[in-house]
Amino acid sequence: MKIRRPRRLAERETVVALIDVTFFLLIFFMLVGRLDATAPFTVVPPRGDTGTDLPAGGITLSVGADGALALDGTPISHDALDTLVTARIKENPDTLIRINADRTTELRPVLSLITEFETLGAANVSIVVTPGAL
Predict the structure, then answer these.
(1) N or C: which end of the chain has fewer CB within 10 A?
(2) Residue 90 in 3-state DSSP?
(3) Closest C-alpha among 30, 29, 113 to residue 69
(4) Closest Cα partner for 121 from 94, 84, 100?
(5) DSSP secondary structure letter of residue 63
(6) What three-state secondary structure class fits 23?
(7) Which residues pair with 60 in a beta bridge?
(8) pLDDT tens per residue, range 64-117
(9) Are strands 96-101 and 130-131 parallel, antiparallel or unpaired?
(10) Edge-to-edge strands, sheet with 124-127
């Protein structure tokens, strides 16, 4: 009579290690990645001696050196910009509008954008600058 040993069941694979790796990757990309909208073109803001940190949220309008516009990282025409900003302001009149203009952009078009947004009913319009002496 042969005595048979009971078959060993294969050990179950755990997914705990995979969950840990997933959370580590998630945290890594959250720390490394930018959570703010970036323009599809290069924008180097001017330097300013004064200013405060801007709160998160709101609308970011990027103005390129050649006058190109991007709203929250998406290229946009001037006519479409008015429509979208008007809709956002109607939803919330206190919406912050950040104008991130390149340092080589002329001031006149930037000021006309600020006046235009205020005419549309915007209460909070700010210009983004890089802190530091000129």
Answers:
(1) N
(2) helix
(3) 113
(4) 94
(5) E
(6) helix
(7) 98
(8) 888 888 888 888 888 888 888 888 888 888 888 888 888 888 888 888 888 888
(9) unpaired
(10) 74-76, 69-71, 59-63, 96-101, 124-127
Q: Do 116 and 103 meet the contact criterion of CB atoms below 8 Å apart?
A: no
Q: What number of CA atoms fall less than 13 Å from residue 52's CA on the CB side?
A: 4
How does DSSP assign 34-57, residue by residue? --S---SS---PPEESS--PPPS-
Domains annotated for the chain, with CATH where assigned, are 47-131 (3.30.420.270)
User: In this structure, what token pair is assigned to residue 43?
Assistant: 């924008």
Mean pLDDT is lowest, of 40-44, 54-58, 70-74, 130-134, for 130-134
Residue 103 CA from chain centroid, whole number:
19
